[in-house]
Design brief:
Length: 145
């Protein structure tokens, strides 16, 4: 119904506002006003339904994110124990943490460089302005530019 009505409405409006004056009867005018009022009412109802659906989806997204975070924390605690798993979930960094712990906390670094030395493997992980230093996979410090 709307696909037919909207082009018709456009035709009527363009005719009314064109330079040539076309008069329409009062009955026709009232019919058009009633049609527009009905269309407006229908669109307002559709808008209300869509707004309610959007709000419901937003609530679902919040709940899903909470569930994901809860599952992530449980997995971190399972992998690293309660103390370290909780620290990793909070994004904390400490000397002695392993490379995998930092990745699980902060995600993949922007860049990694590795240098093989006589004493072992020296690795640098770059996250923006922060560089973390690892010796044989264990954090020995960091630097912020």
């Amino acid at each position: 119904m709307y696909r037919i009505f909207i082009p018709f409405l456009f035709f009527i409006c363009s005719t009314i506002f064109s330079q040539t004056e076309i008069k329409i009867s009062k009955d026709r005018y009232n019919f058009l006003i009633d049609s527009l009022t009905t269309e407006k009412s229908n669109l307002q109802i559709q808008k209300s339904v869509l707004v309610a659906q959007i709000d419901s989806l937003k609530e679902s997204i919040v709940k899903l994110n909470e569930n994901i975070e809860s599952a992530r924390i449980k997995q971190l605690i399972k992998n690293y124990g309660k103390e370290n798993g909780s620290r990793i979930a909070k994004g904390q960094v400490w000397k002695g943490m392993k490379e995998k712990m930092l990745e699980d906390s902060w995600g993949k670094p922007d860049k990694i460089t590795k240098n093989r030395e006589k004493w072992g493997l020296f690795t640098q992980w770059y996250y923006g302005e922060i560089t973390y230093f690892f010796k044989n996979g264990e954090m020995i410090g960091w630097e912020q530019k």
